[in-house]
């Protein structure tokens, strides 16, 4: 096997950026959360409200346990492919999943006071996904780690498990707990776990995008897998609502599905973009292709913000907008410089950090005497 000890780490790569972020933000301890107030608040919910919260917590606990158990084959796959940066990130990923399992178990034990078996909350669709399809896809990597098999595994783990279902679940928790300031310890843990999940999904999406770019056939595999999993995925949400005549917390099935699918649509769009970039002719990249490359790069840099691109009336300036921040790139830059050169210049000018600061800022990237320059309105 080829070894990489001799080369340095690519600290600016997506997995290494996520790895460094995980060390800073992912180092939280579920045991350190104060849950006394939560235990008192628990008694203030109605019977139905408690049932909804217990059901969701039990499902999260079971899902996190599966995600912890089934991640290792992916780690072994990247080791086999000699992707050291991805391996480093995946060590944080795995330990975070372990913490999520511990976190939800602690809520069940100390807040809901349910130390027994909660399997009764697992519906047929939930079992199919988390006890059959997820383990089969992940453990299958041990025997077959082809790009198609990796794509199948990631669609299941990232897009469906952490994505649609994870997002739907967090949405329900937010709707239930955000008003009234109840369960502060639980809410804090949810916030931290959710931030971990954002990194996991960014990595999964990064890996899927690479697989899509490396082989056209992978796209068909992703689509096929998504079609295969969608009925069970929606089934999990529908079956969650089924036992209740009137759902508490103002929750409706349609709103939850709509929320989760909207998040999913954003991820799907970024995969489609990765596919478009891979298909675009490499010989003479057009300004359009460069805009796509820059947008994809920015998306990875400023995650989880969404990057919207627009052109001004004169067609001379392209605006990449991320929340209250914006990067303006002149058409001249896009016509004269290949995307890697533009990205290198933006990196040299610390543009990603400045956009990540999230303070409203407007940066302009233009061409001066044949060179790429980045200006901000406030000098110095
Ligand atoms: Fe997790
Ligand atoms: Fe995760």
- Give the C-alpha Rg: 22 Å
The number of distinct helices, counting runs of at least 4 residues, comes to 14
CATH class of the largest domain: Mainly Alpha
Structural class: alpha+beta
**The CATH topology of the largest domain:** Ribonucleotide Reductase, subunit A
- Report on the biggest sheet: 5 strands, mixed
Q: Which ranges are low-confidence, i.e. pLDDT below 50, for 5 or more consecutive residues?
A: none
Q: List the ions, cofactors and other small molecules found in this model.
A: fe (ii) ion
Descriptive notes:
This protein folds into 2 domains: 265 residues, Ribonucleotide Reductase, subunit A (Orthogonal Bundle); 91 residues, no CATH class. With 380 residues, the protein is α+β, with helices and mostly antiparallel strands. The chain is globular and about 70 Å long. Helix 3 runs antiparallel to helix 5, helix 7 runs antiparallel to helix 8 and helix 11 packs parallel to helix 13. Strands 1-2-3-4-5 form a 5-stranded mixed sheet. The site of one fe (ii) ion (FE2) has 5 residues, from helix 8.
List keywords for this structure.
alpha+beta, 2 domains, binds fe (ii) ion, Ribonucleotide Reductase, subunit A, 380 residues, five-stranded mixed sheet, 14 helices
In short:
This protein has 14 helices and five strands.
Write the layout of secondary structure elements.
Elements: H1 14-25, H2 36-42, H3 47-69, H4 72-80, H5 84-111, H6 124-139, H7 147-177, H8 184-214, H9 217-241, H10 253-279, H11 287-302, E1 308-311, E2 317-322, E3 325-330, H12 331-336, H13 339-348, H14 351-356, E4 362-368, E5 371-375
Parallel strand pairs: 3-4
Antiparallel strand pairs: 1-2, 2-3, 4-5
Helix pairs in contact: 1-5, 1-8, 3-5, 3-6, 3-7, 4-5, 5-8, 6-7, 6-9, 7-8, 7-9, 7-10, 8-10, 9-10, 10-11, 11-13
One fe (ii) ion (FE2) is lined by residues 64, 67, 97, 100, 197.
